[in-house]
Amino acid sequence: MHNDRPVEGTPNICIIVRNADGWYAHIVCDVAPSPLPPTGKSVGIDVGLESFATLSNGVQIANPRHYRAAERTLKQAQRRLARRVKGSNRSRKARTLLANAHLKVKRARWDFAHTIARAPVNEDDHIVVEKLNIRGMVRNRPLAKSISDAGWGIVLNILLAKAARAGRVVVAVNPAGTSHICARCGESVPKRLAVRWHSCPYCGCALHRDHNAALNILKKGGGTAFGEAQPLGGPQNREPHRL
Ligand SMILES: [Zn+2]
Questions:
Q1: I need a surface site. Which of 11, 159, 218, 219 has the fewest CB within 10 A?
Q2: Which of 124, 125, 130, 149 is catalytic?
Q3: Where in the chain is the domain with CATH 3.30.420?
Q4: Of 77, 53, 188, whose CA–CA distance to 129 is shortest?
Q5: Ion ligand 1 — residues with CB under 5 Å?
């Protein structure tokens, strides 16, 4: 067996998986939490359309373009397999190539998700996210937004696991109204989706639409006084949650 890293903690479960490129043993271990030192900082995260996510400090995380190439290879492999005669040697080879392409896309997604989830866990004690419905039960949500929500679902699960281990608190809030309300003065400033800039006629606050939304998300999850804030993970809750 080739070990990609030393086994930590007490091994509990071992799952043997056959992937396109070989056999894998997933070893699930009980590990003690390793809390990170408090930073006294908190962050709100808005999942967007133009950028993958915007943080309440104004940082924008670009959409993952690096796996576009892998996705293109995947499409080619699918077409190639479709052209081959079923059961033939050439079809078998095409199937292997397709499986490898799938694996590559999957790994690129996971890699991206781990990188994105790492930063807020390292930097912030208190992380506020949107409560999303990944299975698409929220109606009137634009299609593109639903797709980015699905990508966000993977990031969120990883974020929850990392936060639990590091002793960080993750709170999910209802995102309703977060893009319309002015984060500075609290007045309602309705805008269509195409309007990318928030400029408040009441207090003069001018921000990118998603930055304003991220600030509102942070505010909403800022304390227990907010009725809709629900802790999703934290030191007391080590199991990753699914939304
Ligand atoms: Zn305002």
A1: 11
A2: 130
A3: 35-64+121-233
A4: 53
A5: 182, 184-185, 200, 202-203, 205
Single out the catalytic residue among 124, 125, 149, 210.
210
Backbone angles phi, psi at 190, to 5 degrees: -65, 140
46 catalytic, yes or no?
yes
Tokens of 239: 């199991």
77 class by beta-carbon count within 10 Å (0-12 exposed, 13-18 middle, 19+ buried): buried
**166 Cβ contact partners less than 8 Å away, ≥ 6 residues apart:** 33, 34, 35, 36, 121, 122
- Per-residue pLDDT tens digits for 164-181: 999 999 999 988 889 899
pLDDT in tens, 182-226: 998 899 999 888 889 999 999 989 999 999 999 999 999 874 323
> Which segments of the chain does DSSP mark as H helices, in order?
68-83, 89-123, 143-166, 209-220
